[in-house]
Amino acid sequence: MTNTAQTLDLDAVGSYLAQNLPGFAGPLSARKFEGGQSNPTFLLMTPQKNYVLRRKPPGQLLKSAHAVDREFRVQSALAGSDVPVAKMHLLCEDDSVIGSMFYVMDHIDGRNFSDPTMPDLSNADRNAVIDDMNRVLAALHMVDVDAVGLGDYGPPGNYYQRQVGRWSKQYKASETDPIPAMDALMQALVDQMPPDDGQRTLVHGDYRIDNIIFEKDGTNCLAVLDWELSTIGHPFADLASVIMQWQMPAGREGRGLAGLDRGALGLPTDAEFIARYCERRGLPGIDNFGFYLSFCFFRMAAIIQGVLKRALDGNASNPERAMKVGQYVPVFAQNGLRALKG
Q1: pLDDT tens-digit readout, 135-162
Q2: Which CATH class, in words, describes the domain spanning 10-106?
Q3: DSSP letter (8 states) at residue 331
Q4: What does the DSSP assignment read for 263-307?
Q5: Domain extents for the chain?
Q6: What are phi and psi of 43, to 5 degrees?
Q7: How many other C-beta atoms are found inside a 10 Å radius of the C-beta of residue 320?
Q8: Residues 212-250, buried b or exposed e (16+ Cβ, 10 A)?
Q9: What mean pLDDT do residues 249-261 have?
Q10: Which of 77, 105, 158, 302 registers the highest number of CB atoms within 10 A of its CB?
Q11: CB neighbours of 2 closer than 8 A, spacing ≥ 6?
């Protein structure tokens, strides 16, 4: 069987799980999830129980990208904390099994909102969903990283300095056409970087509503997914990531809230969401929020440039969508420059 980002060698997976996963029993079938551009993710179905397999894509990859082993470690460490995660079962670091590293976790039977307007919900439920998203974010940033064994999960030093350097290198490694706004943004972030305020917390790295599973008939968060970019860093990057998503155009493509009357939908303003987060963490407020927002636009631009490069190289998880989202790199770069200007 040809083993690509779109397929899975079911015989190899079934044999491995039969030997290594207690309680596993076939027959096994699988279906690839449509969402996600980085690590191909599959629903594994058996008569007794369903699981989820998340793997590195095959082929030549950027250094430090697609860190499924880190995803497995952080979610294992958060088990039993105030941050809901799926139960982790096993990590396979042997590339010879299916061609790349993978892990297996529980399948969470809930619902996922790709559109933050949540058109099928009432105003009260929309508000409750967003408030629980806020609660979980604050809880994440209050995790005692040493107590859960993640004290070494990220290097010390200025998080933004480190991240701007890392993603600038990643961007340059996957650059396809020159984008002047991106070059200007990378330099502006270096020039306007705030001093390190000493906050050092666990950060998700891509915290947004479509990376969360909620109750099927309720508004509580059941699991936060997609921890590939998680590290020890600065919490305001996660908070700004939420606001960045909301500033995108409304609809299936942008998945944002730009131009909408949020009050009429029961949704909080940016300022209300930030204030509620600060209240939960006991913070007086946030200065220079434009920098953190700009950083998130920059990082997302670098990420989707990598997605575009993988599509052109034939390694994308969802090639058609990858080509489409890749066209947004200049837009994210320009939004980043705009955010820096306040």
Answers
A1: 999 999 999 999 999 999 999 889 999 9
A2: alpha beta
A3: H
A4: HHHTPPPHHHHHHHHHHHHT----S-HHHHHHHHHHHHHHHHHHH
A5: 10-106, 123-340
A6: -85, 120
A7: 8
A8: bbbeeeebebbbbbbbbbbbbbbbbbbbbbbbbbbbbeb
A9: 88
A10: 302
A11: none
